[in-house]
Fold this protein.
Amino acid sequence: MRQVLLVTGGVVLAVSLIVGFSALNQANQEQLELTSRLQSRSQVLADSLAESIEPSYNTRATSTLQRVIDRFVSSERLAGLGVFDSSGNTVAASEDLPLPEERNFIANVMDSDELRGSFVPRGEVTYYVVALPLHEDERVVGALTVAQNATYIDESIRSIWWNSLVRLFSQILLFAAAIFILVRWVFYRSVSKLVQSLQAIRKGDTPADTLEGDGFLRPLAGEISKVTSSLRQARTAASEEARMRLEKLDSPWTADRLREFIKAQLKNRPIFVLSNAEPYVHTKVKNTVEWTVPAGGVVTAIEPVMEACGGTWIAHGSGDADKKTADAEGKLKVPPEEPKYTLKRIWLTPKEVAGYYNGFSNEALWPLCHMAHVRPQFRKEDWHEYKKVNGLFAKTLLQEVRHLERPIVLVQDYHLALVPALIKKSRPDAQVAIFWHIPWPSAAQFNICPSRKEILEGMLGADLIGFHTQQYCNNFIDTVGNEVESRIDLEHFSVFREDHRTFVKPFPASIAFPGIAEMHRKPDRSMLESLGIQSKHLVLGVDRMDYIKGILERFKGFEFLLDAHPEYRGTVTLLQIGSPTRESVEKYREYAAQVSAEAERINGKFGTRDWKPIVFEHRSYPHTTLRELYRLADACLVTSLHDGMNLVAKEYAAARGDEAGVLILSQFAGASRDLRGALIINPYSAEETSAALRAALTMSKTEQHRRMKVMRASVSDYNIYRWSAELIKALLRLE
Ligand code: GDG
């Protein structure tokens, strides 16, 4: 639409310029012509008048002169007539004779002995005044002036402009309408049709040779169709190659390899993922709908897998434009720019969200599983909503798989602990895994949960339970041993209950390691410039605004550094990206306010006019911007008080294609088991954090490379494709 308006605007501008110039030209010519006609008429008139006046003037018959003048003025419809003596004094003149303002106009005419004319504006009327010398015996003895009304010249010019304007407007209207219709209904329609046809081919809905192109786009469509066919062939060849490579186990896991693995192993059995968070949230922004990827580890981990394998992802539709962008069943194809799998949204009432999500998930289970000294709140009504919503997720899945045999179901996280048992009860043939993205606490700690038994029984409905680390698996087995009547096989890490066996295994979650092109791109500093950061060193923190992430402790460590080592004042900035999260939960609102106040306090203590020690951005950024910042940061600070894995730590290492930069990582994050090259700290100790910061800022490039290499190798080797392949392999092996 914008383009249509631009084209129309351009044409309108061009037409206006053409009409404007031609009107200007016409007006100029008309003015020249009318003026010259008036001038010659005035001259002829003045000459003949002079002949009639000279005899009376020479005999000094003033009263005769006055009569002659009055007669001429009324008979020739002149605006005025005047006779002057050699000193320029009026001898006889008509009433209100207009004269030019030029001083000595009459005297100059007599001196030069030449006729002269001039336009004289008077109020709304313009006169043309001609003066010529009067002679006696060839001697100049006086002057005669003749004034004529010249207003009609202005009027004529004005009417030319007015006519041109009317013509211009009608032409603009006509052109604009014609162009709009032409572009909108001919050009735009043909291009949209071609684009739709291309999209259908890309999604595999229609074969490449069905590409449609109307009229003038037909040759283009033909060419594109050929290119598409060759791409298809190339893709098939690549896929075949990947399948063959699959046999070689030492090759790295990629999206292609995972896709081939799934094809070979699952033989077209589709994958279903269930999670609370959806990968794409649609929201209304003014009059348009926009989508965003929400901040959070589950989405980061699962999205690349779904993109590679396709399938259906069932999640809570939380955006205010989610309903509008999905079909009647709550389904839509995503990613929005290049659809590869189906997202099925579940709709929840505000009461359900308050009880199941804010209440039981985030105020009970979250603090229960994280040792961050926040007291869990167990409310009966929250538990009731939690059970209800888990039932809704299970029911939705069962509906989706009703015609499928042995569906593969991957349930995600602590929001859906009861779902595995609910699915298995109706569909014992389904192969169900649940992955717990957060830590599993000690048995004693979990013991305080009033619904512990139901939660464990719900999870044990799964064939496979995954955690990030072996430690969480151990804690889980201990908890089951304490709470549920069952037989535990420690050799295989499995739990027998009634007729069912559940395996418990560690699968350290990861990220999609970036490709070569991405790795060698130079970082763009414009983001830092826009935030006013000019310091020599940049330390970066990227987190959801969650109390488990230890942001206040991180600030304390940074303050300690600035206190103990004043040489860093003015040279280092801590940029903290804190993406808003769970803002309906009071604890989270309080935490965001505390972090903001602490940043201000430290900035007040050390800040100068040109330097702000902490730049706190309490907002969400797209992943592309975060990757840019990772590349620019001399150090990345991950100070979680307790964290299942922490993918930010892995993202930082993955983004450093230059093998520079230092990762400072909490010993209480699962990632500390995988990332051996990091500087490991206890985030509760400000002194330790400060020492690690100093070590990072003074570390030699060689040491940085050595450490970064180790971390990058580990993330690249155990990336998210391998994570899901291992999980699915383990699930299939249980058959
Ligand atoms: C849970 C567990 C476990 C951050 N800001 C923005 C944004 N992010 C992205 C990061 C990263 C992800 O969110 C955060 O991942 P984490 O792993 O650090 O944390 P949790 O959300 O707590 O995730 C965690 C994870 O699940 C996976 O199993 O590692 O332990 O708590 O990818 O880049 N993303 C966008 N905008 C932001 O502003 N789009």
